[in-house]
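User: tokens in, sequence out, please.
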């Protein structure tokens, strides 16, 4: 697995010449690079791949890795590759990217409920790690005279990656099932075909023979292409890999070869091959193997809280458990969203790995996520300000681990669970009002239940000392 790039040979040569104590600056990724072929030829164990993924996830990328965007692109100053940077030297602006050197900086807290907070690779970020994405206006002095500071764009708080393998497996299975819908509708024109999979209804689809076209208007909670995308609070990515590729570019200006091509310096910063497909794969395997959140210290009061949570309609969206049909998560490269069965190079049984999912009857896994993986309209109060039709749409937040992850909601505006619940609007308004109408003791029961939903104590398992 020792693969060297020309620029790194000098550093190795210096070492071989007996100058081991001399230390030049070098890329954070080091001299040894991981190619996709290294994973596909079976020369590495899954644990070796995970360890490499953890290392890359935590590596503080620097200029020699290709950190930052190259020369500014006046035709597109928003997309990674040619963004303006502070001091013009390719370092942190914090606004629309170049906002950290490592993934760990924003995903490093396992529990924010302990004092001091507990460290964990793949965890959440607190308010100071919020990402500011594509803002057009930031009005801190209230020049608009609204009585509050104004902001357009996305302001968003980092979630954890624990248990993400189970979420991804659900998304792949649900997508494969939903993709049958249009076929069934085409075969039976002018008939409503229900789109139900894994116990979740995504509405109906119909082929209108007079119009010669599909009627998508009855689809619920998923886009018209019927691809379930659980990652990103706006439901943007089907897999962790798809997210990671964009995260590398957005946060660091590190361009994956799978986007720009091998040997290509896409962002014109003087470095090519900034992150290889094998390296993204390793990060994917690492993240998807992180342990799932768990329930701890269950009590009769928590049980009553769960009953109330179900009775007042919270569980309509925050579905306690979804069940997969298989136990192994397929890793694929390249990924084809609508055909999850293609290009698999590795599979990991999530009941046997550190992910630790319980087996369910029928050959699948129990995924205790407290979400339906659907998008919902949460009302004007929680809406973003891009002026787009999906401004108020969010995927149902997974409540597993919620006891440890304040602040809450997409931008961290709620510092307590009660505030998070009371800020629900839109499709969540009814359940929110039912919660507000409960006697205080019963509200406390719901909170007691939520506070039993904990992050794992040792999410990376044996990888860390
Ligand atoms: C500056 C902070 C920051 C950095 C650095 C960062 N992230 Fe994130 N991460 C976030 C935020 C904020 C979100 C939520 C984004 C959204 O909802 O669209 C997120 C979401 C994610 C998700 C989706 C999780 C989910 O369940 O929806 C993945 C996967 C992820 N990040 C991986 C990474 C990787 C890999 C890196 C390093 C390449 C990284 N992140 C670096 C802030 C950060
Ligand atoms: C219509 C679907 C829906 C219903 C019903 C609903 N929620 Fe939510 N819930 C969501 C969505 C979507 C989010 C994410 C909103 C955001 O990030 O701005 C969320 C977020 C949350 C959060 C914050 C989680 C976090 O990590 O930030 C909590 C806590 C929560 N809900 C609890 C409840 C409770 C308790 C009820 C019942 C009173 C309830 N929800 C009813 C959809 C729903």
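Assistant: Sequence out:
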């Amino acid at each position: 697995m020792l693969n060297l790039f020309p620029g790194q040979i000098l550093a190795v040569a210096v070492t071989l010449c007996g100058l081991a104590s001399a230390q030049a600056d070098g890329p954070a990724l080091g001299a040894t690079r991981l190619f996709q072929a290294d994973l596909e030829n079976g020369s590495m164990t899954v644990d070796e791949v995970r360890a490499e993924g953890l290392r890359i996830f935590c590596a503080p990328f620097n200029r020699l890795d290709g950190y930052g965007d190259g020369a500014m692109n006046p035709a597109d100053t928003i997309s990674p590759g040619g963004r303006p940077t502070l001091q013009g030297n390719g370092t942190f602006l914090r606004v629309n990217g170049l906002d950290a050197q490592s993934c760990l900086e924003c995903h490093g807290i396992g529990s924010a409920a302990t004092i001091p907070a507990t460290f964990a690779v793949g965890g959440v970020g607190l308010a100071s790690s919020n990402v500011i994405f594509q803002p057009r206006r930031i009005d801190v002095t209230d020049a608009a005279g609204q009585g509050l500071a104004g902001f357009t764009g996305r302001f968003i708080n980092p979630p954890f990656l624990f248990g993400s393998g189970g979420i991804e497996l659900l998304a792949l299975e649900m997508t494969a099932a939903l993709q049958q819908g249009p076929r069934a509708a085409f075969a039976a024109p002018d008939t409503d075909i229900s789109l139900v999979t894994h116990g979740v209804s995504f509405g109906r689809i119909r082929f209108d023979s007079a119009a010669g076209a599909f009627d998508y208007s009855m689809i619920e909670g998923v886009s018209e292409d019927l691809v379930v995308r659980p990652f990103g609070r706006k439901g943007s990515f089907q897999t962790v890999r798809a997210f990671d590729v964009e995260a590398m570019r957005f946060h660091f200006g590190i361009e994956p070869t799978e986007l720009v091509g091998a040997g290509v310096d896409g962002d014109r910063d003087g470095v090519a091959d900034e992150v290889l497909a094998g390296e993204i794969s390793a990060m994917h395997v690492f993240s998807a193997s992180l342990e799932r959140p768990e329930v701890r210290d269950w009590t009769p009061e928590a049980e009553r809280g769960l009953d109330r949570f179900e009775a007042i309609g919270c569980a309509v969206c925050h579905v306690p458990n979804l069940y997969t049909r298989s136990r192994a998560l397929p890793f694929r490269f390249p990924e084809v969203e609508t055909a999850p069965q293609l290009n698999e190079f590795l599979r990991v049984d999530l009941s046997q790995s550190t992910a630790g999912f319980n087996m369910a009857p029928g050959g699948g896994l129990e995924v205790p996520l407290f979400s339906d993986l659907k998008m919902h309209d949460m009302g004007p109060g929680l809406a973003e300000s891009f002026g787009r039709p999906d401004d108020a749409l969010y995927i149902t937040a997974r409540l597993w681990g919620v006891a440890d992850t304040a602040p809450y909601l997409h931008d961290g505006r709620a510092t307590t669970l009660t505030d998070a619940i009371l800020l629900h609007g839109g499709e969540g308004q009814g359940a929110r009002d039912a919660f507000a109408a409960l006697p205080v003791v019963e509200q406390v029961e719901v909170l007691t239940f939520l506070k039993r939903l904990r992050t794992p104590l040792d999410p990376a398992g044996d990888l860390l000392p």
